[in-house]
Amino acid sequence: MALVPCQVLRAAILLSYCSILCNYKAIDMPAHQTYGGSWKFLTFIDLVIQAVFFGICVLTDLSSLLTRGNDSQEQERQLKKLISLRDWMMAVLAFPVGVFVVTMFWSIYIYDRELVYPKLLDNFIPAWLNHGMVSKVM
């Protein structure tokens, strides 16, 4: 038995992603008012993908807990569809995009910080928020 049940862990991860998204959207940054807004940043897109993925995970966990003990074929079929959606999203979107964002961001950051995260952004985005948006997906 795990120390923290997977349902509680997934709910906590979902809440932390949502809090980071809310903090990021609350920042008044000049780049948010230009073409594309926040959606032009791959880190933001990845954070949204991760939040949606963990939302589906929490929904799957809740559905499996609520349907446990029922012999309904329809509920079991819908739960299997939800599980296959969760697995597909992990394999196709969440994991590949997350690994790409983390490895590329920190590789380019080490090479030349100004290419991906100029010092000017330190005035708008705190270091903990940048680290949370980029590294938390791993």
UniProtKB/TrEMBL annotation:
Q: How does it sit in the membrane?
A: Multi-pass membrane protein
The transmembrane segments are 42-67, 88-111
Q: Which reaction does it catalyse?
A: 12-octadecanoyloxy-octadecanoate + H2O = 12-hydroxyoctadecanoate + octadecanoate + H(+); 13-(9Z-octadecenoyloxy)-octadecanoate + H2O = 13-hydroxy-octadecanoate + (9Z)-octadecenoate + H(+); 9-octadecanoyloxy-octadecanoate + H2O = 9-hydroxy-octadecanoate + octadecanoate + H(+); 12-hexadecanoyloxy-octadecanoate + H2O = 12-hydroxyoctadecanoate + hexadecanoate + H(+)
Q: Which GO terms describe its cellular component?
A: endomembrane system; membrane
InterPro entries (alphabetical): ADTRP_AIG1
Where is this protein found? Endomembrane system
What is the name attached to this protein's record?
A: AIG1 protein
Provide this UniProt record's keywords sorted from A to Z: Membrane, Transmembrane, Transmembrane helix
Q: Which gene encodes it?
A: Aig1
Say which family it is in.
Belongs to the AIG1 family.
